[in-house]
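Hi U.,

Before I forget, here's the chain from the pilot set. I'm dumping it here mostly so it's searchable later in email.
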Amino acid sequence: MIAKHRLVASATLALALAAAGFSSSAAAAGNPLDNVGVEHNAYLGCLMADASQPPSLQLLVTRCGYRPQGSLDDFIQTFQPYMPTNPNLSYSQRIEPYRGQFSAAEYAFVKRIEAALSPQAQSPEEIDRALAALEAQALAQLGDKSPGARGILASLSTARHSLQFWTPYYIDRLEDSHAKLPKWLRVVIKVVATVATDAAVGAVLGSNPVTAPAAGPAAGAASGIVAKEL
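Structure:
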């Protein structure tokens, strides 16, 4: 089932890239954890397909084809605590409980990712360029062997793909052409920061697969939370 939704998500991604003016990132091709962001969007596309059912860990398994290692109940019990509840925390604030999993060099990228996801950003293209540059630098400086480095790479992949997913979604719903900082962009930044953290935490804690299986429903949940707040 997920293969079908991967195709749908890929088509959506291509349209989003064209519509929003995103450039393809050379860094993505070299990121060994780019599948984290790709799978995030695929599962998210499935979870968001039926607006009558809020995204959940249960639907991730029963409708979208995710296969946890243990039982459904164990899966929900394990990952439910990671579901976002506060849309106002910054990227680094969400990472802080896991800071000990990162070296000093790795944690420096946490601060740089937070800067790229600044509420002062003027466009999704600006954010995309900043994330792509950070991805290339992380590959060159950190590699992909340590849990912290993999957390950074997974986080960057998810941030890029999530940005591409949510930009056209929120432009259609929250566009305000007269606003200096459009409402939809503020919402997108908050949602992206939330799910990018989810991917990082999944990687540093050794989730199997490393894609942090709560990322899809967390994105949907975060989206709903943020939309209500703004």
